[in-house]
């Protein structure tokens, strides 16, 4: 199969703490990765929002986005995403409008409808009793208004967001948000790295129901996948044992720091857990550059064309993580030839 098109490549970071690290060191690693991706001409670098997670430092997402913007030159930096049920749209618009003022044309606002945490924490975050999940479409519209021209706004305005047109992206891990992104004519980002089950259906819904808008005249599809690319398949699989431990830690309800890789993954997991990890590996881009290129070609053949691949990489050694993202960039370049 010969892919005809031009896929862009980007990255997502949850700002995890590696085993033995402090919070500050995890944030420093986040900045180092941003600088590395900037030098590799990655399209964008997104930071997720999670709360009450002792192994992640991504709770104050907008602060981390600004910090990354300050330490990079070209790459777009944004949210993957801001979980809108946790925030008043006015505050979000003010924050991202301020960042757009400081760093023009480099700020993205990815929006999710889930709270990004457990319900007790969500109650502590939100000003109401979880109505934000149901008000997501209306709140997206509010944000579009806040970032739009002043003559189309009411008395309450999100200065300095007025007229800044910060680009919005709808995030999804099921089919729900695919309908919304299509109806509003906005770019759609699917979280294939942790919820691949409905990915194919969601992508089809978005493409088939897409309505052109002032933002887009045709669908723009971003897919986020786990990506671990190394010199050989064997090395990539060894590095991916860290990813397996992340998966199983979540399944066990244990929020542990990112663990070093191991040559004996089966000794750490039950047979059922090992099977689950292998299944997740099948939904990920793990291997040498040639293997990952073949996997990506197969993905496109099965799921359809994508406009952008967003990689997320749980690798314990940061130099190996840099190398993986460099090799992923090489894969996309070869695919686009």
Automatic annotation (TrEMBL):
Gene3D superfamilies: Luciferase-like domain
Top-level lineage group: Bacteria
Spans traversing the lipid bilayer: none
SUPFAM superfamilies the record matches: Bacterial luciferase-like
InterPro entries according to UniProt: Bact_Lucif_Oxidored (IPR050766), CmoO-like (IPR019949), Luciferase-like_dom (IPR011251), Luciferase-like_sf (IPR036661)
Location of the Luciferase-like domain: 19-300
Family recorded in the similarity comment: To bacterial alkanal monooxygenase alpha and beta chains.
Protein name: LLM class flavin-dependent oxidoreductase
Native species: Staphylococcus borealis
